[in-house]
Design brief:
The protein is mainly beta. 9% of the residues lie in helices and 59% in strands. Strands 1-2-3-6-7-8-10-11-12-13-14-15 form a twelve-stranded antiparallel barrel.
Length: 262
């Protein structure tokens, strides 16, 4: 009986060896930086922590000037099968400062954002270039409805070492009034290129339409990002955005990191 049990354990361990070896062979692939979502999935037994150290949004119109600072956005990704990963996201501490341009009165608010649970399934094999991602997002403070959404991230190798990335998205978003839901949709198209073996430069264009009954808006922006893979499992990144529509911040700046472990 003991020999049979030992043999079964050995067979199970040998069956896992290819998976662990494959996990070591996969390229480093973080969600950040950038506006889009990659199609890659983590190998089983792998996990990644991605941290938005700080983010800044600046808006200005004829009546107000608004600056929002976000500290500590966190995303945990876990590979559960050769083609599936789960994600848990926690929005960081948000500090909002608004100044009335006519009176000079300054208003400040602070609090935490939303929590997100997501599943990404590759549609083209382990670590493939097309995936389906579904997510649910809910306010961490409670008192609001959850939002649901699906994304179809895809990446394609191009001539000259470039990569074309697409991320269409469709959401059932919670109304600002906290009662009911509405449709929101959009997408991101991006082009990236490696600058040597450790640095990747990307440029993206995004547009997202939100049909909230309280007021429709379109967030269109262009973004440039730089990812520096310091080590085999560690990355630092920087992103800068410029708004192209009234529904987007005029300027955004984000800095963060990603760390993969087994």
């Amino acid at each position: 009986m003991q020999r049979s049990l030992a043999g079964l354990c050995l067979a199970f361990a040998l069956a896992l060896v290819p998976q662990f070896a494959h996990a070591e062979d996969r390229d480093f692939c973080a969600d950040r930086p950038g506006l889009g979502t990659p199609a890659c999935t983590l190998a089983p037994s792998s996990a990644m922590i991605e941290l938005g150290i700080a983010g800044w949004d600046h808006r200005r119109d004829s009546s107000t000037i608004e600056d929002d600072v976000t500290l500590g956005d966190a995303l945990l990704r876990i590979g559960v099968t050769g083609t599936t990963e789960v994600q848990i996201g926690l929005a960081g501490h948000v500090i909002e400062r608004s100044r009335d341009r006519a009176t000079g009165i300054v208003a400040r608010t602070a609090g935490f954002g939303d929590g997100t649970l997501a599943v990404r399934q590759s549609l083209s094999g382990p670590n493939g270039n097309i995936a389906l991602q579904a997510f649910v997002t809910a306010p961490l403070s409670g008192g609001g409805a959850a939002s649901l959404g699906v994304l179809l991230p895809a990446g394609f190798d191009m001539p000259g070492g470039f990569e074309l990335d697409l991320t269409p998205e469709l959401d059932l978003a919670a109304n600002e009034s906290r009662a009911g839901h509405h449709l929101a949709w959009g997408g991101v198209v991006g082009l990236s290129h490696g600058l040597g073996k450790q640095v990747t430069l990307a440029c993206e264009l995004a547009a997202f339409r939100d049909d909230d009954p309280a007021g429709h808006s379109t967030d269109s922006r262009v973004a440039g990002s730089l990812a520096w893979q310091v080590g085999k499992r560690f990355q630092l990144d920087l992103e800068a955005d410029a708004g192209l529509s009234a529904g987007a911040p005029d300027r955004s700046l984000l800095v963060g990191l990603a760390w993969q472990f087994h």
